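Sequence, please.
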C-alpha cells in the first residue's frame, strides 16, 4: 500500500481524542496489503457523514501494462460512537467501484445481480460479518461525436455499496480485502488462488481509459 497515514478523524480530532475502536480499525486498514495490481492511497475523508471517517482510493492496473487502469474506486470507513439509526451499528462502510466493460458484457441483463453477489460473496468468504447492505449497480453508455468521433463507444459499470460491519471493533482489514476482491473481479483479473472455475470474470478493454 502507498502511504496511508492520513487523518484518522474528521470533525473529531486526532491523537488521544480518537476512539480506540476507530483507531484500531484505521491501523488495520493501513496494514492491509492487497494484491500487487491494486494501488491504494488515502483521500481527504468526508466531514459530514460521521464524527470520524477514513477514506482510501484504489486503482487496479493491467498486469501487462502498469500504466493502464482497469478499474478504480473509493473505500470509506465511518464511525459514530453513538451509532446511527440507519446503520444499526457504530461503523459504516461506504464504497464506489468503476470499471469499463466490453459492450456485449454491459448488455447482459444479469450483470447487476452478478456483480452484487461478488461483493456479498467476497465479504462472506473473508468472514467479514455485515448487516444493512444497500447499493446500486449502474450501467452507462457514452458515444462520441465531432472532434471526438474517432473514440470508441464506452460502456461503464458503477457499483455504489454500503454496509454495517458487525461488532464494536470490526475486522476492518477483512472488509477492505473483500472490497479489493470485488474491484479485481470488475477489472477482469483472475483470482489469486484456485482455478477460478466458479467465478465469472468481466472481460475488460485493455486500452487507455
Amino acid at each position: 500500500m502507498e502511504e496511508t497515514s492520513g487523518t484518522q478523524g474528521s470533525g473529531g480530532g486526532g491523537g488521544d481524542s480518537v476512539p480506540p475502536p476507530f483507531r484500531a480499525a484505521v491501523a488495520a486498514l493501513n496494514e492491509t496489503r492487497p494484491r500487487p495490481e491494486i494501488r491504494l492511497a488515502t483521500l481527504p475523508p468526508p466531514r459530514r457523514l460521521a464524527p470520524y471517517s477514513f477514506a482510501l482510493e484504489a486503482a487496479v492496473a493491467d498486469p501487462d501494462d502498469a500504466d493502464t487502469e482497469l478499474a478504480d474506486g473509493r473505500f470509506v470507513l465511518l464511525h459514530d460512537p453513538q451509532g446511527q439509526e440507519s446503520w444499526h451499528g457504530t461503523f459504516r462502510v461506504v464504497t464506489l467501484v468503476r470499471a469499463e466493460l466490453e459492450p456485449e458484457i454491459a448488455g447482459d441483463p444479469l450483470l447487476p445481480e452478478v456483480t452484487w453477489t461478488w461483493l456479498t460473496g467476497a465479504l462472506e468468504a473473508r468472514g467479514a460479518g455485515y448487516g444493512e447492505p444497500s447499493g446500486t449497480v449502474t450501467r452507462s453508455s457514452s458515444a462520441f461525436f465531432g472532434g471526438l468521433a474517432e473514440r470508441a463507444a464506452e460502456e461503464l459499470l458503477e457499483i455504489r455499496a454500503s454496509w454495517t460491519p458487525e461488532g464494536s471493533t470490526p475486522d476492518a482489514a477483512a472488509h477492505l480485502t473483500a472490497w479489493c476482491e470485488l474491484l479485481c473481479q470488475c477489472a477482469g483479473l483472475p483470482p489469486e488462488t484456485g482455478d477460478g472455475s466458479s467465478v465469472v470474470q468481466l472481460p475488460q478493454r485493455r486500452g487507455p481509459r
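Residues 111-125 form the longest helix (15 residues).
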